[in-house]
Amino acid sequence: MLFDHNVLAWSQLPDDARVHSWLARDAVGPTPAGRSFRAMEPHIIYPIDMDDYAWWETEQKGWIEVTVRWAAGERSITFYDATRLSQSVRDGLAHRGYFAERIVVVPSVTRNALESAVTNMAEHDFVEMS
């Protein structure tokens, strides 16, 4: 799948102007910008407007919590890189005695890595998120 980072599914997003999403380029249907989208294509809703600096900062932190929407539902998912995940697990065990989150581990927390993971999960109907 190819992605067009400028296509926003306005009809599916909350009114909060900080929320942005991506959709597949091969989608069908009108958007405010005159582009197309398929309402059931999976997309990521980011917590803030993700410019280059925000992506650099997110990659350095090693995690981001986003909402992923697809035909069968919507889930809040935290994406981690392996280093940050081990730190978070260690902290959770030390402070609470457990670690529990809905997570996806990626090599690095970048836009490409997140979109690739979501695309792969979509190809398997998000069975990992059930």
From TrEMBL:
Note the superkingdom of the native organism. Answer: Bacteria
Provide the protein name.
Uncharacterized protein
- Source organism (scientific name): Actinoplanes hulinensis
